[in-house]
Amino acid sequence: MNITIDIKQLKELEKKLINAGPKTIKYAEAELKNSVDTIETFAKILAPKDRGGLWQSIATEAVTKQEYKIGSNKDYAPYVEFGTGAVADIPSEWNSFASQFKGATGKSWDNGLEEIRQWCIRKGIPESAAYPIFMSIIENGVLPTPYLYPAFKEGRKELIERLENVIKEFNLQ
């Protein structure tokens, strides 16, 4: 699960930066990178820490100096972020992004039940509770634990502020 952030998403600021010259673009790229680093760090802070796999997998990939992908390579990442079933909660601006994860996880019934059994052991819950918990998940879904979207929203806000400062500094009003 990866989100993509690039300067082009910020159309109004882009118009002001587009003809500003290479020095200004370098500053804007640096501000983008700073914001991307903030998003990655904040997402890691917000991600659940049960076994540590999710937060440890959150990483940034530079596509270009003006475009980055931030996300996790864990197959369960979108289900943690958005939840499942009737309790899924998808931010409207991420609807098309989230739709690619809708449906089956590709995991078997036995695998899912075993994951819940292992979770019960880690949490000190009797193993006999695994089946009822698993059935409740199947019937009711899993509540979302957003980590990437709140980090994205905060990072985007910070990026806009940073780019506005670049625009002021270079008198690009």
What does it look like?
With 173 residues, the protein is mainly α. The protein has helices at residues 11-18, 22-46, 53-57, 77-82, 95-99, 109-123, 130-140, 148-169, and strands spanning 2-6, 59-64, 67-71. The chain has one domain (2-169). Helix content is 56%, strand content 9%. A three-stranded antiparallel sheet has the order 1-3-2, covered by helices on one side. A hairpin with a 2-residue loop joins strand 2 (59-64) and strand 3 (67-71).
Task: Offer a quick outline of the entry.
The chain is mostly helical and about 170 residues long.
Choose one word for the global shape. Answer: elongated
Task: Give the helix level as a range of percent.
Answer: 55-70%
Mean pLDDT: 85
- So how many helices? 8
The secondary-structure class comes to mainly alpha
Strand content: 5-15%
- Largest β-sheet summary: 3 strands, antiparallel
Number of strands: 3
Written as H for each helix and E for each strand, in order along the chain, the element string is EHHHEEHHHHH
Number of domains: 1
State Rg.
20 Å
Low-confidence stretches: none
| Terminal Cα span | 37 Å
In what order do the strands lie side by side in the largest sheet?
Answer: 1-3-2
Which features would summarize this protein structure in a list?
9% strand, 8 helices, 173 residues, elongated, mainly alpha
List the helices and strands and how they pair.
Elements lengths: L1 E5 L4 H8 L3 H25 L6 H5 L1 E6 L2 E5 L5 H6 L12 H5 L9 H15 L6 H11 L7 H22 L4
Antiparallel strand pairs: 1-3, 2-3
